[in-house]
Design goal:
Layout (H helix, E strand, L loop, with lengths): L23 E3 L3 E2 L3 E2 L33 E3 L5 H5 L11 E4 L4 E3 L7 E5 L6 E8 L6 E5 L3 E3 L2 H10 L4 E9 L10 E7 L7 E7 L10 E7 L6 E4 L8 E2 L6 E2 L7 E3 L5 E5 L6 E5 L14 H7 L14 E2 L2 E8 L11 E6 L11 E3 L1 E3 L4 E7 L5 E7 L2 E2 L2 E2 L12 E7 L5 E3 L1 E2 L8 E8 L5 E8 L11 E6 L6 E2 L19 E5 L3 E4 L2 E10 L7 E10 L2 E4 L3 E2 L8 E8 L6
Parallel strand pairs: 1-38, 4-9, 6-12, 25-31
Antiparallel strand pairs: 2-3, 5-7, 7-10, 8-9, 8-11, 11-12, 13-14, 13-43, 14-15, 16-17, 18-19, 19-20, 21-22, 22-23, 23-24, 26-27, 27-30, 28-29, 30-32, 33-34, 34-35, 35-36, 37-39, 38-39, 39-40, 40-41, 40-42
Length: 569
């Protein structure tokens, strides 16, 4: 997916028009080269607008948390159940949200607290305390979850950036049961924001080629509303054989990548697996780019293409280029797949004009799932024995077979390619690595790691790692691990398809990166999670995952892209 320097976004996610190269944001919202971001919160107001005390309205003691308990479904008498019984007896509820120690942007979704009760418990006491808060927030509820009110979160998120929320939950049987002991967790509020919008593939049924079962949905960072972004019938570009007259409407929009301007997605449509570009901004939803020529459409209509990637270094008027795998249309990817460029403004048809092969000297295996660096210099891809249409391992039923897979890097070199080299730390002999993604500053690469000897496709054993883009020691994300008391365990919950947010936040010497990925740890359906990676010099720290509770839990939500998408007018 293409993560560029963003058009300026409001900190809660409303997009304004800005520049296009990697950008960092420090703790006060000052862009590395783009001035100060002071946008509105999810419902108005500003996370960064100065209050009576400047950027921090309560520099000493805040009274955001009310002194009296919050009653949520319980009765005021519920306080008596927990009063005078500070320690309680037995095991407390299992806190599954937040995963203890998680780190979130200060402009993120208002926190939700959720727990699994001990059998028989019907009444709960939730306590939240934080530095600088005069009061401890107490919630008495008969529910097994509680979400902080939006108005309160806007204030708290601004006032305690960089602080930790200490969370505890006790349960009891109403009305006179003895409370359990407290289960504790913590949630860290980062001093920086996340930007951009997340667009993901959602599936409602089992037939992925039924246009009524799949669509792209999305939301802007910090907002709760899920928007329908693109449905298959909206897609203007048809796909088909080399002959542009042999085409068919798009039935499936799945594994997608974003263009650097946030206006379009590129994806591989249903068989014969040609590539398609379609608008996601409401005014151009489904439309192909105006600059795309008929020669470019012909080139993208070839069979056995794969996941496209773009770079903002090659995304400007007169120069719109895509890179994609290119397979053999006769054997469904069993022959080595090439890595090719497509000139989307081509003025003539054919190889060398509308498209061409990138040399990968030293690598004779197939190339799959490429990602192009933001500076346009390098492409990281999966070098594998067999791949087709982005599936590492081949097509049905061949994609279920084990396939060797390592990450390689090749220079773009003005469409010429060059030496293809293994990415040290992500080309291990005792593991398979696939689905890479450059961080917005090109310093890191996120990828999936899977044990050897098993299929890489839709694999429950998949886990997410990060590695320096120049090679080095790979770091396993703490976010792979579900809460222990929930019963889930990784490997085994299908952590996959990690994509970086389009901005890097900076506070002091720390650089904050945000990642989204999908996991089956909640209810057996793919769901989206947020994770933090903090870089201090050469030291990388990772944090537990945060569930995006605004997504519909009844559908499969996966293969996200996180970029400067424009989802609202």
């Amino acid at each position: 997916m293409r993560f560029t320097k963003l058009d300026f976004l409001t900190i809660a996610g409303l997009l304004l028009v800005g520049a296009c190269s990697p950008r960092t944001v420090d703790a006060t919202g000052t862009g590395g080269s783009g001035g100060k971001a002071t946008g509105t919160g999810a419902t108005g107001g500003s996370f960064l607008s100065p209050g009576p005390g400047g950027l921090d309205p309560c520099p000493t003691v805040c009274d955001d948390f009310p002194a009296a308990p919050v009653i949520d479904g319980a009765t005021p008498e519920a306080a008596k159940v927990f009063a005078g019984n500070k320690t309680g007896q037995g095991t407390g509820p299992c806190i599954v949200e937040p995963e203890s120690g998680a780190l979130i942007p200060f402009n993120w979704l208002r926190p939700r607290f959720r727990w699994l009760p001990v059998p028989g418990q019907t009444l709960f006491e939730l306590r939240i305390k934080a530095d600088k808060q005069k009061n401890e927030l107490v919630v008495l509820t008969t529910n097994t979850q509680w979400t902080m009110p939006e108005a309160l979160w806007k204030t708290v998120g601004r006032n305690i950036r960089g602080a930790t929320l200490e969370v505890s939950v006790r349960g009891a049987a109403e009305p006179s049961g003895t409370p359990t002991g407290a289960t504790t967790a913590s949630l860290v509020i980062a001093p920086v924001a996340a930007e951009g919008s997340i667009v993901y593939w959602t599936t409602k049924g089992t037939d992925a080629f039924d246009g009524s079962n799949t669509e792209l949905q999305g939301f802007e960072a910090g907002t709760e509303e899920i928007l329908t972004v693109l449905q298959p019938p909206q897609v203007e570009q048809t796909t088909g054989d080399w002959n542009p007259t042999i085409t068919q409407p798009v039935k499936c929009v799945g594994c997608h990548s974003s263009t650097p301007d946030g206006l379009y997605v590129g994806f591989t449509a249903q068989p014969p697996w040609g590539n398609v570009l379609a608008g996601v901004k409401p005014a151009i939803a489904g439309k192909k780019p105006e600059f795309m020529t008929t020669f470019a459409v012909e080139a993208l209509s070839q069979k056995q293409l794969g996941i496209m990637t773009f770079s903002n270094a090659f995304w400007k008027p007169g120069q719109h280029v895509a890179v994609s795998p290119y397979g053999d249309d006769e054997d469904e990817g069993l022959s080595p797949t090439k890595l090719v460029w497509f000139d989307l403004e081509a003025t003539a048809a054919g190889e060398g004009k509308a498209w061409g092969v990138l040399a990968r000297t030293g690598d004779t295996r197939s190339a799959g799932a490429p990602d192009w660096s933001h500076d346009g210099m390098n492409i990281v891809y999966t070098s594998t024995r067999v791949q087709t249409t982005g599936r590492i391992g081949g097509s049905e039923p061949k994609h279920s077979a084990p396939a060797e897979a390592d990450l390689y890097v090749v220079p773009f070199n003005n469409r010429q390619g060059g030496p293809a080299m293994p990415l040290m730390g992500a080309a291990e002999a005792n593991a398979n690595e696939c689905y890479p993604d450059f961080s917005p500053d090109d310093k890191l690469v996120a990828f999936n790691r899977i044990p050897v000897g098993i299929s890489t496709y839709d694999q429950p054993q998949a886990e997410v790692y990060v590695v320096p883009s120049k090679g080095g020691q790979a770091t396993r994300l703490t976010a792979n691990d579900p809460v222990a008391c929930s019963g889930g365990k990784s490997p085994g919950v299908k952590n996959s398809w990690a994509k970086w947010a389009p901005n890097v936040g900076r506070a002091g010497q720390d650089e904050y990166y945000w990642i989204t990925f999908s996991s089956d740890r909640v209810g057996g359906k793919p769901q989206l999670f947020l994770a933090a990676v903090v870089k201090s010099g050469d030291t990388i720290r990772t944090y537990p995952a945060v569930y995006m509770w605004n997504q519909p839990a009844t559908t499969g939500n996966h293969t996200p892209a996180w970029d400067a998408f424009i989802l609202t007018e």
